[in-house]
Amino acid sequence: MKKLPGVLLLFISFATLSQTQNYSKDTQTIESTIQTLYNVISGDPGTERDWNRFKNLFKPEARLIPTRKDDQGNLTLKAMTPDEYVQAFSSRIATGFLSGN
Prior knowledge:
The chain has four helices and two strands. With 101 residues, it is mainly α. Strand 1 and strand 2 form a beta hairpin. A two-stranded antiparallel sheet has the order 1-2. The chain has a domain of 70 residues. Helix content is 43%, strand content 6%.
């Protein structure tokens, strides 16, 4: 039982560390902001994305407008908050950034 407080402290330390990432260099320039965006959303199939880093790139009122083709080949678009984007595209990680849509 004496080990339990130490284990809990270690767990809390890791949890706190993971929540205090410094993303300040990501938005120093337009180029670094765009590069960070592509680094976060792109990747090999199955590779987790750093969605907190992604959300840090946007103001709360920001909207992303991804486009895609529907079944008839028409382009469609949808305005999304960064949180809505993360929710919608997290499922595509298994196949990489693009899943054919």
